């Protein structure tokens, strides 16, 4: 039985628009096979290379659908730039050892900053799958597919980079406005007010109270203390920048720590106030206890004798009933 078909997003040099490629995991498809099917006739496959979500792929034998190229990732085919002196010749003075030494040290994979930026806006920050509703955002402005994040929390599989997410209270449900007709300029969502694409070209904010995602341009041009979509009022601290710069993320992290410290302090104060109320109630209850004469007997008096002045001299156990007399305490017969 064949496995269920899966998809990846594909971009080629001849088309700036994303294409959808459907593949069957049970029938391996290598990057080289895919490359040969995409390049023009008589083209040299060595003059092209792939990147996946902005990361360079140096091995053409990698199969599509592998951990390096997971389903729903963005795969881009690019031209390889050639360098050199231009004459293509060699002086003969080069040593073979220098070339061996040059390639002996493994160099880190090059990452296209544009692809990396785009991936943060169109893919889930955790699973790297294409963003799809319902989506959530953490307090630092990272956007996730809600299902992927909840599953990671339940299975305790969150990476260290997201250890600030401790539970559902750290998620903000966000409402992304889909682009009518589908993808446009590598974006699937847009600002509901200005129509600007949600692809990293423009700055966007999410409002924590209602979850609507608006462009910075919309919030700047329309001065309002209420959401421009649902009209729910918000404060400046309710605005969370999405995929912000390092400085912006640091500011969000500082705000998050302050809010958590405030919550802990408020809980402690409520607990202390609750303890004071319980203690005061206990004192009040103690004042209303039944009076016992034996408890205030003079120093030289026997407690039982002193108490008998105010109560019956017989104990309840001393009262007995016979066939001719029903003995009851005074006031009860």
UniProtKB/TrEMBL annotation:
Transmembrane residue ranges: none
One of the record's GO cellular component terms: nucleus
Keyword Coiled coil set for record: yes
Domain of life: Eukaryota
Presence of the UniProt keyword Coiled coil in the record: yes
InterPro entries for this protein: Rtf2, Rtf2_RING-finger
One Gene Ontology term from the biological process aspect of the record: DNA replication termination
Keywords (A to Z) from UniProt: Coiled coil
Pfam family, one: Rtf2
Coiled-coil ranges from the UniProt annotation: 242-273
Protein name per its UniProtKB record: Replication termination factor 2
